[in-house]
UniProtKB/TrEMBL annotation:
Residues 350-780 form the Mannosylglycerate hydrolase MGH1-like glycoside hydrolase domain. It holds the Pfam family MGH1-like_GH. It comes from the Bacteria. It comes from Shewanella sedimentimangrovi. It is an enzyme of class 3 (hydrolase). Residues 44-275 form the Glucosidase YgjK N-terminal domain. Keywords: Glycosidase, Hydrolase. This is Alpha-glucosidase. NCBIfam families: PRK10137.1. Its EC number is 3.2.1.20. GO terms for molecular function: alpha-1,4-glucosidase activity.
Length: 803
């Protein structure tokens, strides 16, 4: 076990070293890129939006737009013959909205006769990093292509070719009109006195947005806008929501003409100047070539032909997904970051542990973006002189968005400092260890974050940490007492304030504990419980006390003869105050979590590797010693020999919370290398048990036998691909390659549309394989990509041993 943990860092090194692209595969890819051939996109990039929020049942925007280079907007190929690109979908600071069905649709005419696109020989092609169209008539060929060239601008390259033997007098009209109906249930987004306005400019048009802040829908700063600039002069007229631009030209026989168009979306008035490209044709052609070369590099470095358990096409889909969710610095986001999803509602920000996962995958083909992804969160690492929470020095906050929250002087709804996220930052940084300067930059910050867990989340100082909640107005009243919400049945604590629907807002940890013990209530909820779930990343996992009423009744019948009062005590979490130097610094949920401590053991080992790399031998030895000591504690304190699985344990008593059922936290000691061989073998048995985790789509977030199992619930049954990856990677680490291969095959066979052109989803139904949750989800893509590389490395290592 100790040697396994010590090999944590080396395992990652093998994955990178043994999966370098074969020279032959690189050369073939480069040749295709150099000749201008298209590497077809694995994703369906077609769609024609008709609503600003064209949501599916999970709140995802329809379709899968191409976005790139950190831009805050994306485009689609139309589903019917039209010259132009559908959209764009824009990120209105924190929420995505379709702006138009097609912002710049080209209507060409010859001698006043409009060309009929339905009769043209047409081709639509989505490439990796590019959208293409081609229309041919007897006398004219029209080609359009779109690429992103920086964090605000897409270029459209339009080529007109006279294929006849006579001059062609052409009239070119570009038309566009904004969408204004928000969704199927709501009317216009823009109030009558606040609508975007079009203005003709010397080089094209500018669309200016008014100030608008509509909660959980979109934010616009006055002066934000979208500029359309063309290399061909045109005359433009505008209406309330639309425009028409008109140009005339004549093409001689066999002559071709190239027209450039730039669509630049800026989120504030001061961005327009800083993101100015210049519109000389040489400059635009150079930017186009740079975009092409950038994608050639992604494919060369990120798409080697490997003997992997996953197909190369799925690795490419993962790569395209990650790069499509890339946002460049804007607002409070100070570094480039890959967000969870461009198309999912409220996911256009940077989450902490999402970021660590994204960075690990990006390290293979976009290492600078990976570094900035990590920096984007560490930009807001809490410092000792912080005006709001100096007690949290070292903490990495949960989310960073365009807008800070009101406590930080902003107006954002998604910024979150109520909790942190699991400590995988050092794991991500270690993927980038070839850059020693970056390791030197990050090492002291990682140490500060590591120490925060023991100062603010180790209630009894025993070296085993808990998840919890920070000091925050959502968790405390004005007197600093812990908030909770009560729907009373009998006695009501003093000072509770009435809310809607019979709920009361109360405060005081002692009163909460009294109610929890007496069960004298209809319902009892704590924001700190929510924050602790968020901090774990497994928001509503059963082990944190989340269970439906019907499931609780079944549990009561099984264990207590139907006594719900006794049953509730097993499921209602308790809380403790954490103090440092006599001062309150936060709250912990009253259980020590196995995967949190497994992550911390891994982090100690990795910090030791970093210290050694930086020449600090003593620190390296100390970290490794502490890592081995914690690993031993995990095996002695969190493993249940009767069921052969790891569980969280109750704070104080050390009682394992076995009755809440098995979850993926139980195989975290395998992934981190903490488990001993006998424990790994026992956990493997549960992972392969069809009555537990070996479902059609395997390794869900709760065993089927768990009391709170629900395949529709967010973290109580659905298959999340990060936890699936931790499972198969952990099995491979302990030599169970055949099991890892078999579980991979089941995922590929049964997860709906995973191998096709549909987007990678947030999670999947464990029994039916139904796609669930967010579309185009980055951490799912990241872990699929990591397994593409690392399963090949594991297979190569085994092959080498046999030879």
């Amino acid at each position: 076990m100790l040697s396994t943990l010590a090999g944590t860092a080396q395992a990652h090194a093998k994955a990178q070293a043994q999966t370098q692209s074969p020279v032959k595969a690189q050369a073939l890819t480069a040749t295709k890129a150099q000749t201008g051939e298209c590497t077809p996109s694995v994703l369906d990039r077609s769609g024609e939006p008709s609503l600003m929020q064209q949501f599916d049942s999970y709140g995802n925007q329809a379709f899968n737009p191409l976005a790139d280079a950190g831009a805050w907007h994306g485009y689609l190929l139309p589903q019917s013959p039209k010259a132009g690109f559908s959209g764009p979908l824009i990120v209105a600071q924190e929420f995505s909205l379709y702006l138009a069905p097609m912002l710049e649709q080209l209507h060409p005419s010859i001698n006043g006769r409009p060309l009929d696109f339905a009769s043209a020989d047409s081709q639509m092609q989505a490439c990796a990093g590019e959208l293409r169209q081609r229309f041919s008539w007897p006398e004219l060929t029209l080609k359009l292509a779109l690429r992103f060239v920086d964090g605000r601008s897409a270029l459209i390259r339009t080529e007109l070719i006279n294929t006849g033997d006579k001059p062609l007098p052409l009239t070119l009209e570009w038309r566009g009109e904004l969408l204004n109906r928000l969704n199927q249930n709501k009317g216009p987004l823009w109030p009558a006195d606040k609508v975007p306005s079009w203005q003709p400019t010397p080089g094209g048009l500018r669309l200016s947005f008014p100030e608008l802040q509509q909660g959980f829908t979109g934010y616009f700063t006055a002066g934000a806008g979208l500029d359309i600039s063309r290399s061909l002069a045109s005359n433009s007229s505008v209406t309330e929501l639309g425009y028409l631009s008109r140009s005339e030209l004549t093409l001689n026989a066999a002559e071709s003409r190239l027209i450039w168009s730039r669509e630049r979306y800026t989120l504030s008035p001061d961005e327009a100047e800083s993101w100015d490209l210049g519109m000389t044709e040489d400059r635009l052609a150079a930017l186009w070539q740079q975009s092409s070369e950038r994608w050639r590099a992604y494919l060369n470095q990120g798409m080697p032909e490997l003997n992997s358990y996953l197909p190369q096409s799925l690795a490419q889909k993962s790569l395209e997904t990650l790069l499509g969710n890339w946002r460049s610095p804007a607002g409070a986001l100070l570094h480039d970051a890959v967000t969870p999803s461009l198309t999912a509602r409220s996911f256009d920000g940077a989450w902490a542990w999402d970021s660590w996962k994204h960075a690990a995958a990006l390290s293979y083909f976009a290492p600078e973006l990976a570094k900035n992804q990590i920096r984007a969160l560490f930009d807001y690492q809490i410092q000792a002189d912080d005006t709001l929470r100096p007690q949290d020095a070292g903490m990495i906050i949960d989310t960073v968005f365009y807008n800070r929250d009101p406590l930080r002087g902003g107006s954002g709804e998604n910024w979150n400092e109520r909790n942190s996220k699991p400590p995988l930052a050092a794991w991500a940084v270690w993927y980038l260890r070839d850059d020693q300067a970056f390791i030197r930059e990050m090492y002291p910050k990682l140490v500060a974050y590591h120490n925060w867990w023991y100062r603010n989340r180790d209630h009894d100082g025993n070296g085993l940490a808990e998840y919890g909640a920070a000091l925050h107005l959502a968790h405390q009243d004005s007197e600093g007492r812990m908030r909770f919400y009560l729907k009373p049945k009998g006695t009501v604590p003093a000072g509770c304030q009435p809310l809607e629907d019979g709920w009361l807002e109360c405060a005081g940890l002692d009163d909460y504990r009294t109610l929890a013990q007496s069960q004298d209530y209809q319902a009892l909820e704590s924001p700190a419980q929510q924050a602790a779930g968020w901090e774990s990343g497994m928001d509503n996992a059963a082990r944190f006390g989340f269970i439906d009423d019907s499931q609780l009744s079944a549990y009561a019948a099984k264990y207590y003869g139907g006594d719900l009062t006794r049953a509730r005590r097993d499921w209602l979490p308790g809380f403790v105050e954490n103090r440092h130097g006599g001062k309150l610094v936060g709250y912990s949920i009253d259980q020590e979590s196995v995967e949190l401590n497994a992550y911390l053991a891994q982090e100690k080992a990795l910090l030791g590797q970093m210290a050694a790399l930086l020449g600090d031998k003593q620190a390296a030895a100390n970290w490794q010693r502490d890592a081995e000591a914690l690993a031993a504690r995990i095996n002695s304190d969190f493993f249940d020999s009767e069921s052969g699985f790891y569980y969280d344990r109750e704070l104080g008593s050390g009682k394992l919370l076995t009755r809440r059922g098995m979850g993926p936290e139980g195989w975290s000691p395998l992934w981190t290398g903490v488990a001993g061989p006998s424990q790994a073998q026992a956990v493997r048995s549960s992972m392969l048990d069809p009555k537990a985790f070996n479902t059609p789509v395997p390794l869900g977030t709760a065993a089927q036998s768990a009391p709170a199992f629900d395949p529709h619930s967010y973290w109580r049954g659905r298959v999340w691909l990060d936890q699936w990856y931790f499972g198969v990677s952990g099995l491979a680490r302990y030599g169970f390659l055949e099991d890892a291969r078999a579980l991979t095959a089941k995922l590929l066979s049964n997860a709906e549309a995973l191998k096709g052109s549909a987007p990678i989803r947030e999670n999947y139904h464990p029994l039916t394989g139904e796609m669930q949750g967010a579309t185009n989800f980055s951490w799912s893509a990241a872990h699929l990509y990591l397994w593409y590389r690392e399963s090949a490395a594991a297979e190569a290592q085994t092959t080498n041993k046999i030879q």
